[in-house]
Amino acid sequence: MHDRSIRVLLIEDNPGDARLIQEALAEVRGAQFHLECADHLLTGLERLSEGGIGVILLDLSLPDSHGLNTFVRAHNRAPEVPIVVLTGIDDESLAMQAVHEGAQDYLVKGQVHSNLLARSLRYAIERQRIMAELRNSSLIDDLTGLYNRRAFLNLAEEQLEIADRTKRRMFFVFADLDNMKWINDVLGHRQGDLALIDTASVLKETFRRADIIGRIGGDEFAVIAVEAREDLAEIVAGRLQKNLDIYNAKENHRYRLSISIGIARYDSEQPCSLDELLSRADRLMYEHKRAKQKLA
User: Fold this and answer.
1) Confidence band (pLDDT; 50, 70, 90) for 82?
2) What are 37's strand-pairing partners?
3) In DSSP terms, which residues pair with 172 in a beta bridge?
């Protein structure tokens, strides 16, 4: 792998440690690292949402977050960006947990020199690229580009386990494209495929980049929203309708796009299975669909 302007986000609250990292990366020959620093996790997450970061160096002990949950929150915000944990916590068990959750490496401060650090960053980026290619080859729905059913349900199970451990909020969203049968029967299956593709685009516009979106059936979609606000249902309903209105205002469509949704909150204090959560969101979705039919 060639080092071409790798942008590194260091999330570290100790100015001395940040300076040592900057000096270590500056010593690496043949590499071009551009280091950006954030001294709080929230600040780092905000920078991640802007894009352009190639790899993250993450301390687990920050003023606003501690331990493994620090990694989980960063990983959920930008799962496509590789993370190398660089911390003063020399704990093999914690290191294994971090790697299990998706960290590409776990380095302990004071045991890292410039070449080791540079190699870890380069390998992390390359491993992330290879993993993404492998996932995309078997886990992506060919038509919409979203996760397929198998991939989505596997990711959902993982998120349930993480929610149980970290006691964080999680919402399961079930979405259904209305009038799919009419589109297929009257306009043809090619238009049906286009409607599914457009539905996927609207859902991606509606939800955050950190949320997990999948096509789990013919005209059925699902979303896992992690660390979302308590008023997620109201926010999503408004944002979805706005995006549908924008789409339907275009004149080159032979159908109006309509999506019914149901949103179920997962409570780690009262855990349930993924099937139960899916059924709950499914029921709420059908209530939404019936309510729209009565108004039509």
Assistant:
1) very high
2) 10
3) 224, 264
Instruction: State the architecture of 6-137 in CATH terms.
Output: 3-Layer(aba) Sandwich (3.40)
**Dist CA 259 CA 192 (whole Å):** 14
| 3-state secondary structure labels for all residues of the chain | CCCCCEEEEEECCCHHHHHHHHHHHHCCCCCCEEEEEECCHHHHHHHHHCCCCCEEEECCEECCEECHHHHHHHHHHCCCCCEEEEECCCCHHHHHHHHHHCCCEEEECCCCCHHHHHHHHHHHHHHHHHHHHHHHHHHECCCCCCECHHHHHHHHHHHHHHHHHHCCCEEEEEEEECCHHHHHHHHCHHHHHHHHHHHHHHHHHHCCCCCEEEECCCCEEEEEEECCCCCHHHHHHHHHHHHHHHHHCCCCCCCCCCEEEEEEEECCCCCCCHHHHHHHHHHHHHHHHHHHHHHC
> Which of left, alpha, beta for 2 (phi over 0: left; psi -120 to 50: alpha)?
beta
Q: Which residues contact 70 (CB under 8 A, 6 or more apart)?
A: 41, 58, 59, 60, 61, 62
Classify domain 149-295 at the CATH class level.
Answer: alpha beta
Query: Residue 296: what pLDDT?
Result: 63
When pLDDT is cut at 50, 70 and 90, the band that residue 128 belongs to is confident
Query: CA–CA separation, 268 vs 101, rounded Å?
Result: 18
Whole-angstrom distance, CA of residue 101 vs CA of residue 94: 10
**Residue holding tokens 């009565």?**
294
Mean pLDDT, the chain, whole residue set: 89
In the chain, domain spans: 6-137, 149-295
- Any idea of the CA torsion for 56, 61, 66, 67, to the nearest 10 degrees? 70
